[in-house]
Design brief:
The protein has 223 residues and is of the alpha/beta class. Helix content is 43%, strand content 14%. It folds into three domains: 99 residues, NAD(P)-binding Rossmann-like Domain (Rossmann fold), CATH 3.40.50.720; 32 residues, Double Stranded RNA Binding Domain, CATH 3.30.160; 59 residues. The longest helix is centred in the last third of the chain and has 18 residues.
């Protein structure tokens, strides 16, 4: 038999979800909920927390109007307006009830203590502006995901995001000068050399600009 075209089996499909201005529900107000809420806010979500008590950090966000807080226990009707649900309560049985009901309603759901039965898991991720590198062990070892992310943090300069923003603007210039998509692909394939990738990783934007502009001038397909 020939080699399978499908390749290695994945427990979860890696995707990027757009949750800006979407209502995301977090049930639970403790330490774990803090991390989840912070991640959701970074992605521009509208966050509603349901819990009788709140961690002081969440209390500050609620007071500042950054999140909505319902100071009570969870009710099934709370799920109705939600787009994404995170079950982060200290009560494992409650988390399972939330997970079951959310799945019945075909909602994205993450149960922090039961990743195997969640429809969504949160990877550990490195963010440098528009560059987001996600590391997942499919819920098997969150600690390992975190360690790998920490090792990458030392390799990618905070100014990498600035480099990426400039590349995005320069890409429009390339598109205006090279109308043929195959030629554009060829340019970027040749231009993003290991040396250029290193400049991006180190956040050396001045050197990056010089390198890409020089290569662009020499590229035969540019008008």
């Amino acid at each position: 038999m020939g080699e399978s075209l499908i390749g290695t089996f994945m427990t979860f499909l890696p995707v990027n979800l757009s949750i800006e201005d979407r209502l995301c529900l977090v049930i639970g107000g403790g330490r774990v909920a803090v991390r989840k809420v912070q991640t959701l806010l970074q992605a521009g979500a509208k966050v509603r927390v349901i819990s009788p008590d709140l961690d002081p950090r969440l209390q500050k966000l609620a007071t500042a109007g950054r999140i909505q807080w319902k100071p009570r226990r969870f009710k099934k009707c709370d799920l109705k307006p939600a787009w994404l649900v995170i079950a982060a309560a200290a009560d494992r049985d409650l988390n399972r009830q939330i997970q079951t009901e959310a799945k019945r309603r075909r909602l994205w759901v993450n149960a922090v203590d039961d990743p195997e039965n969640s429809s969504v898991i949160f990877p550990s991720f490195l963010c440098r502006g528009g560059l987001v590198v996600a590391i997942s062990t499919s819920g098997q070892s969150p600690a390992l995901s975190r360690k790998i992310r920490e090792s990458l943090e030392h390799q990618w300069n905070p100014k990498t995001g600035t480099c990426l923003e400039w590349i995005g603007r320069f890409r429009e210039q390339v598109k205006a000068k090279i109308s043929n998509p195959r030629q554009r692909f060829r340019f970027w394939d040749q231009a993003l050399t290991p040396k250029v990738i290193k400049l991006i990783r180190q956040g050396k934007i001045a050197e990056l600009k010089r390198s890409l502009k020089t290569q662009f001038k020499k590229f035969p397909g540019a008008k």
